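Thread: quick sanity check before group meeting

JM: Hey all, I'm pulling together slides for Thursday and realized we never actually wrote out the predicted structure for the chain we discussed last week. Dropping the sequence here so it's in one place. If anyone has concerns about the input, flag it before I start.
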Amino acid sequence: SIRRVSQDTQYFYDVPLISKLSDIYFIDYHLHSQSEGEIFWSDRSTNSIMASDLNGNDIKTLISGLGIPDDLSIDWITGNIYFIDLDGPRIEVASGNGSFRKVIVDSGLDKPTGLVVHP
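JM (edit): ok, ran it. Output follows.
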């Protein structure tokens, strides 16, 4: 499951945000404002990149058919999703809604395990 921790009170407590997820590997988020944005995660049980709003609602599959989804990173300026598919391996990019998917690196990679976007 994906959980969030409240920092609004003196005592920290965690709240289940999205339950019944079994094989989540990496999570990132994209804020549009303090109250609007999305959470993104790679899900190996469905071999996909998933997303929801900040409250865990409106869960959708953005990218499906991946071999072994691994790390992902969101470009906070463009909203693009950069992600690793270990079946290849390769690094790909797609728009924030999963469209316009493109392979950007597919050679010279041994075992990529981390991805950071610095706009």
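AS: nice. The mean pLDDT is 88. The two ends are 30 Å apart (CA to CA).
JM: adding both to the slides.
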